[in-house]
Amino acid sequence: MAMWQGAMDNRGFQQGSFSSFHSSSSDEDLMDIPGTAMDFSMRDDVPPLDREIEGNKFYNSGGIASSNRIMDFLEEPIPGVGTYDDFNTIDWVREKSRDRDRHREITNKSKESTWALIHSVSDAFSGWLLMLLIGLLSGSLAGLIDISAHWMTDLKEGICTEGFWFNHEHCCWNSQQVTFEDRDKCPEWNSWSQLIMSMEEGAFAYIVNYFMYVLWALLFAFLAVSLVKVFAPYACGSGIPEIKTILSGFIIRGYLGKWTLVIKTITLVLAVSSGLSLGKEGPLVHVACCCGNILCHCFNKYRKNEAKRREVLSAAAAAGVSVAFGAPIGGVLFSLEEVSYYFPLKTLWRSFFAALVAAFTLRSINPFGNSRLVLFYVEFHTPWHLFELVPFILLGIFGGLWGALFIRTNIAWCRKRKTTQLGKYPVIEVLIVTAITAILAFPNEYTRMSTSELISELFNDCGLLDSSKLCDYENRFNTSKSGELPDRPAGPGVYSAMWQLALTLILKIVITIFTFGMKIPSGLFIPSMAVGAIAGRLLGVGMEQLAYNHHDWAIFNSWCSQGADCITPGLYAMVGAAACLGGVTRMTVSLVVIMFELTGGLEYIVPLMAAAMTSKWVADALGREGIYDAHIRLNGYPFLEAKEEFAHKTLAMDVMKPRRNDPLLTVLTQDSMTVEDVETIISETTYSGFPVVVSRESQRLVGFVLRRDLIISIENARKKQDGVVSTSIIYFTEHSPPMPPYTPPTLKLRNILDLSPFTVTDLTPMEIVVDIFRKLGLRQCLVTHNGRLLGIITKKDVLKHIAQMANQDPDSILFN
Fold this sequence. Notes:
Blueprint: E1 59-60, E2 70-71, H1 92-109, H2 114-155, E3 158-160, H3 168-173, E4 189-191, H4 192-197, H5 203-231, H6 240-247, H7 258-273, H8 281-296, H9 300-303, H10 306-325, H11 328-339, H12 345-365, H13 389-419, H14 426-441, H15 445-448, H16 451-459, H17 492-515, H18 525-549, H19 554-557, H20 569-585, H21 589-599, H22 605-622, H23 627-635, H24 652-655, E5 668-669, E6 673-674, H25 675-684, E7 689-693, E8 701-706, H26 707-720, E9 729-731, E10 747-748, E11 759-761, H27 766-776, E12 780-785, E13 788-794, H28 795-805
Parallel strand pairs: 5-7, 9-10, 11-12
Antiparallel strand pairs: 1-2, 3-4, 6-9, 7-8, 12-13
């Protein structure tokens, strides 16, 4: 016999307890468990959750010699019972039920004594204390990463002789020999050509600086990929696709562990400093979630409940975005809109508090020395005009097209990496991409600088004191009213900068496709924003010059008079950045809030909204998935997208296993199977659980028992209960079945039986089944007809069916 073909075929045991409402199957590829042997050891990154076994848990020995003897073997927690295997989905209903029982017990006890009342108050306060600790730790690590990355980025170009720990800007702060025009040059800062050859100018000095730039970039990239490969393979990538999957209830042991946190923090600095086209903002969400997961182990309330832990991780994700962009409110909305699967009101408040504490901590550290939380904070004061919505919408279209193009090409490249020999050589791939990036980046000052500095330069609103080439305008005016500079003709520096920015745009578009997804920490927020900011600045300068030279045109003469400050190119860069980021991630509300928190101006919400919505519409027209959802599907994670509607008219009987011509479902009977029979079924199958029926003839459903609980219970009974042998009868009923004299003791396993598994009839529409799986977080439900068991539908079956209906490869779903 075979049980639900494919969907429950796995190589792992699903852990659970008698109070489970449903079980799940394990990873088919990563866990190999021969026969009934089982390894309960866990990574020390995430220790097993020691579940308290509630209620009366005991084995009842049957037979004439011990018919009335009750063995309380399950009163003590058994290692492994109630926890989950790697690459499995948690039981949301069971976890929430356990938390309600725990809370009810604490509330009842609080009326009995003062100590119990204090314990109740501390339990209620523990959530807020945990949020405080997460905010403090996340903010501190973000400040450390910002300071280190800034210093190591400058290290590629030179070193401070006053103190090697100073970056370029800090080195020249107190110098008395800095001129306004050459504010970046000071005697204390030496380029590598000065340090090695005592030469500052000339072809040979340029070659030395070029060589040292590429050498440092390769060294940083090599260290990053080597540390990830050797110590923490989970530290690579953005982390947001996996965070989304974990928050939906999936278990990935070690992904949020202490080694992952340490290595991700170190390698994130190295990866950003190498000059690759990546950002630290996405990985900061992963870092914050690692902080949340580790700190959860200090509190039993969260350590022992996977659903409660996911509420904490949602708040930690908000804190991560808060320190990444200096946007606490945007962080909360990002967690709500983009990553969280279950987000109750209580989690909203705690997310807000965690984001607040994290932002306050980062502000106290002041990593950039400008009292701002990000390098590219900017303020605009010039109002925008209605006609400008046209170029803003054009930027939205560009962002949508770029987003769709990037997702398709990046997923195609990542799939090639997974399915070819390329994926076996991550170090060589990283070094090749780093070498190409560094060689092409050095000659162009806009690609040589860090991406955050580039965005800051593009967002900048030119003033009289700006010496940047982007602000090299011809000053044909006497005074400027209210301190605002009028639109001016572009000088040679602006035209030179436009060509360099156009080349930078091409390089960023191409190289980011190959960079995102490599085996190093790599965020996508900053490269996407850079692409949009470059396109926006180019368009903004074009609009500015058009308005200056043709202010008498009908489209300009009503609101742009000669000598007025009409167009702000920096605003176009900001709108373009929002459009491209929205096109790649499909964020809308949280994106707009993050961008206006960056600029400190509410009056630009409408342009940002117009660009964000346009980019989403255009990108959705070309492909429904954002980059994170696409990577979730590429990795085969069991993520049921709540935003998508299931519109097909299939029934439960079309999806359930076994199908019409398949072998019958493997089941256990309630009182007629021996220990040997059960152990044989366990050894010959790889299913994660078994329906229990009255008899094979009637097929009337009694309940559902998890494979892991069966193995643990039988092994425990053999060790602690005298007389249990292979011929002992296992029964799941309330009372022991009548047994002939001198038979071995029976084994009562009713207390590990789920007596209320979720069931649907065979004629239930699949749209209802999909909704049940989404809203209740089920892992499987049983299918019945007139009370008789017919089959089973797992979460993996549902995902495969959805993929099949969408003309996608159903075998891409690897886990349940």
